[in-house]
């Protein structure tokens, strides 16, 4: 194998893999512009003619609720989840990484063990609690748990990052009279920005794409998210609404792609440094 082949072969393989990974996205975009009779009958990637009315129908929304309202509802839930996870998980992580208290190691091990607990196991008890509190069909069951550090994965991720931070900075802050909370807020939290941004990105994407939990707690159409609206599209108009449904899918994917592209460099930095520290 000559030098030119060795140089271009990895790039060619990477380009082919990239095309394979991007094909589903290209198929989604092309299908959103297909006429209704071609969505399930034609295997061609490109439609015979562009059906822009699919996007017009999608923008009208579902059950009288516009797509703007659906996106606003989803953004409100995602923003609340991001804020809750960043604050609560960083606080819990700081306690495990820096503070010394009784049963700290046992509690940390128990928290990590909850990563293996299926979400469906706690779903019914949580629903009963929120139902008795009168929070069903509101956004509270989707946002409130995020402020209680219930995401063990993010707590563990931030703990691993904080353990690699130099303790001398915190010791200097304590000498200057800073307490534990002031040290956390002014010293540790700013230095943990890569891990916090990683937490924010994953929380935003997972919350935006969540369907099952939102389906359990939200009933009124005016409270629907864009994910619930996609399922309601088919129920409302049967198979003839596949084109608009895929058009709404494209609309729902755009905020996630924008959010990821803006913060992707922080995601890579946060994951790499978290893996090296600890």
Helix content: over 70%
What is the CA-CA span between the terminal residues? 42 Å
How much of the polypeptide forms β-strand, as a percent range?
under 5%
The arrangement of helices and strands along the chain is HHHHHHHHHHHHHH
Low-confidence stretches: none
Chain-averaged pLDDT: 86
Class derived from helix and strand content:
mainly alpha
Anisotropy-based shape: globular
Q: How many strand elements?
A: 0
Major beta sheet, specifics?
A: none
Give me the Rg, rounded.
23 Å
Count of helical stretches: 14
Verbal overview:
The protein has 278 residues and is an all-alpha fold. The protein has helices spanning 3-31, 36-39, 53-60, 67-98, 104-113, 119-132, 140-143, 152-162, 167-175, 180-191, 193-209, 212-217, 226-237, 242-276. α3 (53-60) crosses α14 and α8 (152-162) packs parallel to α14 (242-276). The model has no long low-confidence stretch (mean pLDDT 86).
Task: Based on the model shown, name its key terms.
about 280 residues; about 0% strand; globular; mainly alpha
Nutshell version of this structure?
With 278 residues, the protein is mainly alpha-helical. 73% of the residues lie in helices and 0% in strands. The chain has 14 helices and no strands.
Topology:
Layout: H1 3-31, H2 36-39, H3 53-60, H4 67-98, H5 104-113, H6 119-132, H7 140-143, H8 152-162, H9 167-175, H10 180-191, H11 193-209, H12 212-217, H13 226-237, H14 242-276
